Amino acid sequence: MDKTHELEIVGKGVPQIYGIEKATGSAKYTVNVELPGMLYLRFLRSPHAHAKIVRIDTSRAEKLPGVKGILTFKDIPQVKFNPNTRFNFFGALPNDMYILSEKARYVGDHIAAVAAVSEEVAEEAVTLIDVEYEVLPAVFEPEEALKPGAPKLHGEESNVLQQISLSHGDIEKGLKEADFVFEDEYKTQIFHQATLEPHVCIADYALEGNLEIISSTQVPFQVRHVVAKVLNLPINKVRVIKPHVGGGFGGKDEVFDEIIAALMSKKTGRPVKAEMTREEDFIATTTRHGFVVSLKVGVKKDGTLMALQVKSVQNAGAYCTSSPRVLGAQSARTLLRYRIPNYKFDGYSVYTNLVPGGGFRGYGGPQINFPLESLMDIIAEKLGIDRVEIRLKNCIRQGDLNITTKNPIESCGLREGLEKCVEKMDWYGKKSKVTSDGRRRGLGLAIDAHITSSFPRGAESSEAIVIVNEDGTINLKVGSSDIGTSSDTVMCQIAAEVLGLTVDDVSIAAGDTRNTGWDVGAYASKTTYLAGNAVKRAAAAAKEKIIQETAKILAIAPEKLECKNKNIFSKDDPAKNITLPDLIQKILASGEPFQITGTGSFSAKSNAPNYSVHCVEVLVDPETGKIEIPRYVAAVDAGTIMNSVALEGQVEGSVHMGLGYALTEELLFDKSGKMLNSSFVDYKILPAAETPRVETIIIPSYEPTGPFGAKGAGEGSLVPALAAVANAVYDATGVRIKELPITFEKLYTAMRKK
Amino acid sequence: MDKTHELEIVGKGVPQIYGIEKATGSAKYTVNVELPGMLYLRFLRSPHAHAKIVRIDTSRAEKLPGVKGILTFKDIPQVKFNPNTRFNFFGALPNDMYILSEKARYVGDHIAAVAAVSEEVAEEAVTLIDVEYEVLPAVFEPEEALKPGAPKLHGEESNVLQQISLSHGDIEKGLKEADFVFEDEYKTQIFHQATLEPHVCIADYALEGNLEIISSTQVPFQVRHVVAKVLNLPINKVRVIKPHVGGGFGGKDEVFDEIIAALMSKKTGRPVKAEMTREEDFIATTTRHGFVVSLKVGVKKDGTLMALQVKSVQNAGAYCTSSPRVLGAQSARTLLRYRIPNYKFDGYSVYTNLVPGGGFRGYGGPQINFPLESLMDIIAEKLGIDRVEIRLKNCIRQGDLNITTKNPIESCGLREGLEKCVEKMDWYGKKSKVTSDGRRRGLGLAIDAHITSSFPRGAESSEAIVIVNEDGTINLKVGSSDIGTSSDTVMCQIAAEVLGLTVDDVSIAAGDTRNTGWDVGAYASKTTYLAGNAVKRAAAAAKEKIIQETAKILAIAPEKLECKNKNIFSKDDPAKNITLPDLIQKILASGEPFQITGTGSFSAKSNAPNYSVHCVEVLVDPETGKIEIPRYVAAVDAGTIMNSVALEGQVEGSVHMGLGYALTEELLFDKSGKMLNSSFVDYKILPAAETPRVETIIIPSYEPTGPFGAKGAGEGSLVPALAAVANAVYDATGVRIKELPITFEKLYTAMRKK
């Protein structure tokens, strides 16, 4: 099945296999799971950004009827761990988190856990725990945290969690050889994944040594690994089940309350559910890291990029989680988008007394894309070069070196994306810069390259099994995690395509670590790429057996046979055929009956960059700073499209999130580190009414390493939105905002200042 | 791993892996499953043994608050099916059962089903259904049913459900060449499997086209097949889950209320639970078939068997279920035990208006063993030959032809079993025939051969998958069904043995058709043999990969490597080694990471007969007929013993059931076909206090086709108990009982008559 093979199932807008149950409300999420005898977990959380527990007294809480267990740091071994430990990644992350600690490092940090027969009782018990804190000085901004006398979060060492450098070529030489050097600094805000479903998990440790966890997670096998490691259990004794998940976006990419719930279940002998309130989900999970990024760019007169020097400072918050990985991912990202002969990146991940940053769609990409794509516009203007041309001149092309993998880039639709996007937007058209009602019109543009899988930073691998039932239908088992992206549907499409079946013929069992081989989890835009390839191989293995057995029965050479419509036939003479159910009956009636199964394993040997080009038109009201977005064009090169409906969902959702990033979303903290807008009333996700219809352009592309030519598509379409909007706002108003979000107020103030 | 390999895990008395949860009561059976919104199903059952519904009115029942759905034959397509249809068997069974019919064929037959919010409401609603029956003449005994004018159960055809013949050699010639011909007739009773857990299932058809069934079944894949077939669903849309099962013994070897529960779930949109009461479990499931067996045996003066002619009449009850298969299994059974050069079997399965017979531990074996083993004693006495000698002379030996498979018998411990059993019982010792308190002492003996798998009557196959976790522990997936026999434990032992791990290192996921390859189910004493071989192969495939990867890393030839204690080492120099977790880390760190998995498929090409020899001592009180059993010796050739504790459990349980068969258990019906003892108060299972301690002798044996040399052990030890007891009673009293059970009253009456 090569590039020229005509696809029957893959690429079609097959409805999500869970569509009906999700639409009718019968789909089961973790929050819907109620187990007999289940207890409910609530936490006492620190009101201080930095404090030591001097005295903690749970005796009043223990006496409350219905309370079944209370845990504080005194009850728990003080083992440090990292909730983002991946079993497949090279290089360990620092372990700096305790299950429960005697020190709080941010407002919301866990102090004590109560399990009770109802949430209400647990909640009341929490209020009955008496704590005396020694409040410690706190620090919230990396630049403050880096100062010599700053309060230290973890021991006496510096607050630098990790320093990451990357260089390529000779930065000094590059800057010297440039005709012009531009310098600039940009700041991006802390905000939240704001999944519709808050974090929730259930742990059932009813039997000593066997632990079952139900969790709203993106990474069931990672949860299994971390929980087993921290609780010192063998992997086979831990089972993690992932029901439907109401959104992840990187925010469910690690272990949260699974460990404490497990310990509480062990203590009480009952299943324990830990379901976060919306407020807790905001204040005590992980956020998008705030960054300050300084750039120094050397260019030739003609706009050719000669050198890029980056200093990136990441606000990691109070614990490590995945911060160094986000920074590491950021370090090389630009080199997948632009040809830059001389490059130097110095990144600093810095502890502060805020809720930790963590995984978030784009994973460090937006925070470097926004600065550079803004600066590209500034450079173009300064050099008198067209904004499109400067990008066409410098952008990566097929065959260029992928600096992260040291292999050539095998597919790249950046140029075509730029051309088509600009054409669709009528970029060079002569629309008036001012509307009839006095608003200023502007166009903006930005491009991005995003990785498909974390290769080579980890052993990115996935396993699949295809089991052929006696009527020729399929049970497909794969470790991948559908967190709402339709990836399970895509897996069914792939198996159906290979085996000549319909999607309805395939049932998938995923999301249960006991029942499938591993998959590293739903992150890095790679489920289709990784698990899709594993499924394709598993289905191909099953198909090979089907063909082999048919060849024996029909006495036709295997290479002359094909499968379609549950039928195996001679390509030369389709009348020579046998249906799949009949074939299975013949196998059963043979002397050596067996079930046709196929296994498939795939590990990434590329990160197959996927590309996005965004063009946006904005209208700015000069009286209020209000930004309206009448048009948004998003071109995407995701290789072969597996499911057009699912792809459009990813692009539209990403753009929406990117626009929120650009315009409205930000977590605000008071001077004591307390979050000010931890509710959907106060935290402003971009409303549907303010979100433009996204005009998606699919760039024809074929990634040879992907299943049927596919690449990732889950994150990249978020990234260019920030700069595209900022560039369009500048185009409209002449005001350049370098600190996100571009709130109406901020823009109004800047316009006034100007 | 051959015969001489020293076994580390297999053969040990490893405790059942579910031991703690079963002992503490936390193990989940189907009866414990409660789903949100679940409805409860109750049935209106026929009070008549044979009747036609003239009018049925559910309107009063429908009005009862809490009633959510009522189904009668009018609501259901009148499609005939057989609940025992196996997807892997050759030759279809007659379809004669309706989901709900307008005709009742036995007392207890389903007339209408009610689903309500509670069992109480459903129960009350049942009483509000008005039915007018046309009562039809009924027939209960096969000999009556065979008479020309007898009432017909299914259409106008004869009540002969099926006639089965088997012959071998020349029966006429054999009888002619015999010195003596003996004729005799024996009758065995109808009785019940009486599992501790009654039949129960839950069907959840919440989403059109996806049906989930939780069932207390021995055969999940068969349930899936039959339900899909009858409801016209693709196999991949039906999922059958088997939680812990509280005993099967053949009684859960087919579909019961799963189909009607599914239809009710479809109608109501809610999960539906159908849990039988103890009474329903007696009156409306399946029973042990009653048989009348007539024998004609030709022998030489020296006791050599020359010919055996059998006429076997089976009381099938009202529907076919598995009756012809039970009769077919019986037809050849004797030829696996004795060398009989000339043989003829004529069997008649006959419909009557009683609850149907079905699968039951021994599957037709006891009903032919009791007659022939009784007659062997009669012949021995008549010819003046020792009872042991006549069996030693005639019994099957290794290398003899297995008449059912046409291959030689590869292992046979019958002779050794006879010798050891007799020795242990001190058979030739001079114990007084009368005790000091006047009771008569007697010794009895019987032998049996039972099949391991139904080969060649079906494609007996099983599939297994071994998945190696990142810490070297194992997730094992196999389709086999542990119904309380410890077979899951045995599967873990096999995987651990092959891979050099402990049982604790292996977790098994079984009992869910969505998550494993198929296994044909827990019947025919073959789970260890079939699934065990599949697991062994899957583990061996995983081991091969482990060895291959180690060979690369350590630069040692694969054949020089061995796995033990989670360590792979050079057999020549054990210091050259790598631990399994380290190996996996190296694979993850390689350029081509993958998870080590292995798949295994096994199909039986033998039925590897397993053998039993029982010796029993009885004491009979001549004043009351009371039989006491002071000693019971059971020798078993089950090949290599996989788990000594589990084996002893099977032998002891089988003997207990066989003694109940011999002495106490019988379903009684009044003249209208109504069961008289459908409760544990009235139905007499042999009490523990009356059950002897079983002295088990394990005959060393090695079956080359079995995993590590194992054969079946689940049924054979029931079979000889009947004749052994009857023979001992004769030895004690001189009274030969030819109609089971040998109740004290029956024996007393017979002794008085004599």
- The CATH architecture of the largest domain in chain A is 2-Layer Sandwich
Main sheet summary of chain A: 7 strands, mixed
In CATH terms, the superfamily of the largest domain in chain A is Aldehyde oxidase/xanthine dehydrogenase, molybdopterin binding domain
The 3D shape of chain A can be described as globular
Helix content of chain A: 25-40%
Number of strands of chain A: 28
Question: Tell me, what is the CATH class of the largest domain in chain A?
Answer: Alpha Beta
Low-confidence stretches of chain A: none
Task: Please characterize this protein's 3D structure.
Two copies of one chain form a homodimer. In chain A, a hairpin with a 5-residue loop joins strand 19 and strand 20. Chain A has three domains: 19-26 and 461-603, 2-Layer Sandwich (Aldehyde Oxidoreductase, domain 4), CATH 3.30.365; 33-136 and 199-275, Aldehyde Oxidoreductase, domain 3; 290-455 and 606-753, Aldehyde Oxidoreductase, domain 4, CATH 3.30.365.10. The model of chain A has no long low-confidence stretch (mean pLDDT 96). In chain A, helix 10 (365-383) packs parallel to helix 17 (721-733) and helix 16 (644-663) crosses helix 17. The first copy, chain A, is of the alpha+beta class. The radius of gyration of chain A is 27 Å and the shape is globular. Chain A starts with 18 loop residues before the first helix and ends with a helix. Helices cover 27% and strands 25% of the residues of chain A. Chain A is built from 18 helices and 28 strands. At the A-B interface, strand 19, strand 20, strand 21 and strand 25 of A face strand 19, strand 20, strand 21 and strand 25 of B.
